[in-house]
Design goal:
By secondary structure, the protein is of the alpha+beta class. It has 7 helices and 5 strands. It has a 5-stranded mixed sheet, sandwiched between helices.
Length: about 200
């Protein structure tokens, strides 16, 4: 769902309500009612991503138009929930038969469907803890996710700011993980504003 991956400040929506979280979930949303565990950066995360990417490429073939490692596990040195976030571009993310069904045959599970937010879909892989975010090719959200990742990779001061903010928020108790993600929106907007400003210079 939206959150760390919802990085477009021009389309930043208010935090999702509980009803919206439930509506977007395919099946029952998982209730957390706890703090968030942030693991120290693990050098194995890129190789886990590579395993997932290889499997997805083999499954989708030429239906896969782009796939990238995103989120905190894609930023060396950044602590993160030990969940590999990926972004996948297909021709039309609303056409679930083109990619959801082949992935489900490989054990992936569709967990989130958000037709009102870029036709976003989220699938969970079977063997490695990950989130596969799916958008249509050319979706502006993909560019924002990559911009945010690349900026944190090359700007240690903002990487530290982001990590400190995450640690403070992760220590709080959240009903849903999405609530924690919502709470990070302000710092994501702040950092992205700097990244965009740098792009236009």
């Amino acid at each position: 769902m939206k959150g760390e991956q919802s990085t477009d400040s021009s389309k930043m929506n208010p935090p999702l309500t509980e009803d919206q979280i439930i509506a977007a979930a395919v099946g029952q949303p998982q209730v957390l009612n706890s703090t968030i565990y942030l693991a120290p950066y693990n050098p194995a995360w890129p190789s886990l991503y590579t395993q997932l990417e290889t499997n997805i490429r083999e499954t989708l073939g030429n239906k896969l138009l782009l796939i990238e490692h995103v989120g905190s596990t894609s930023v060396p040195g950044l602590s993160a929930k030990p969940i590999i976030d990926m972004v996948l571009a297909v021709a039309d993310s609303a056409d679930e038969s083109a990619y959801v069904q082949p992935l489900e045959k490989k054990g992936y599970t569709l967990r989130v469907r958000e037709p009102d937010w870029y036709e976003h879909r989220l699938l969970k892989p079977p063997d490695i803890d990950g989130n596969l975010h799916v958008f249509s090719a050319g979706c502006e959200e993909i560019n924002q996710m990559l911009l945010f990742r690349n900026w944190l990779r090359s700007h240690p001061e903002d990487r530290l700011l982001y990590e400190n903010t995450k640690r403070r928020l992760a220590a709080q108790t959240w009903k849903y993980t999405q609530n924690y993600a919502n709470a990070k929106s302000a710092i994501v907007r702040e950092i992205l504003a700097r990244a965009r400003s740098h792009q236009t210079q």
